Amino acid sequence: MPTIAAWRALTTLFLSILFLILPALTARAMEIQSVTSPKGITAWLVEDYSVPVVAIRFVFGGGSTQDPVGKEGLANLMTGLFDEGAGPLDSEDFQIKLDDAGAEMSFDESRDGIYGSMRMLAEQRDQAFDLLRLAVNEPRFDQLPIDRIRSQILSGIIAGENDPDTVAQNKWARALYGDHPYSRSDQGTKESIAAITSDDLKGLHKAVFARGGLHVAVVGAIDAETLKKKLDMVFGDLPQNQALRPVADIDPRLAQHI
């Protein structure tokens, strides 16, 4: 049975895919199909041919709660690097291929999940799904992109130190959650973000990206049989089981005046 964290990740996935669905389906009923590939990858699918576009959104259970102590910000940094080179393509080549395919790809994290999404033109879906396959299975985590994205995150951390809303949010989280991973900023600290290495990124990717923790939703100009092949192409070679650190139940410290 899914944990509370897993249900939270699933709910976020479902709501985000609804935002993709609703503009195209305002005039008719929405039919959600459950599609399972030969390798056992299951996805929710809404076929819609009103525009020649395919959108995919997926989540792996995990997220910033999996950041090791002293390496806070690891999941956040990782999600900034999936379009910065994968497989045989370095950062520049990957971005060129992505533009050529007419596709948009992004990754983000929450406390309980690592999310990925891609929107593509239906006529170029083969090229787009192949780039997504590379990003999911073979991210490079090259040092130059790591340093560049790290610098961007560090700038945000420094700016947040002088932002009253950010300071208050961080103090509120520490007061409420204590030492629980939920109390930590997903960006990390200046010290923790500087300590993260390429090996740390590869280790988190290996622990989180597995079929057992995967949930997928797809909307657009693609049929179920074609989607089954794409699901296996993108996700079918991932390991079956995740290797997540256990996360304790939340015991919030209420009845405080701060």
Description:
With 258 residues, the chain is an alpha+beta fold. It has one domain (4-235): Metalloenzyme, LuxS/M16 peptidase-like (Cytochrome Bc1 Complex, Chain A, domain 1, 2-Layer Sandwich), CATH 3.30.830.10. The protein is built from 9 helices and 6 strands. Strands 1-2-6-3-5-4 form a 6-stranded mixed β-sheet, with helices on both faces. A hairpin with a 5-residue loop joins strand 1 and strand 2. Helix 4 (125-137) runs parallel beside helix 9 (224-235). The radius of gyration is 19 Å and the shape is globular.
* Secondary-structure-derived class: alpha+beta
Gyration radius, to the nearest Å?
A: 19 Å
Strand order of the largest sheet: 1-2-6-3-5-4
Average predicted local confidence, pLDDT? 90
Q: What is the H level of CATH, i.e. the homologous superfamily?
A: Metalloenzyme, LuxS/M16 peptidase-like
Distance between the termini: 38 Å
Give me the CATH fold name: Cytochrome Bc1 Complex, Chain A, domain 1
Q: What is the number of E strands?
A: 6
Characterize the main sheet.
Answer: 6 strands, mixed
Q: Into which percent range does the helicity of residues fall?
A: 40-55%
What oligomeric assembly is this protein in?
single chain
Low-confidence stretches: none
> What is the helix tally?
9
The top level CATH class name: Alpha Beta
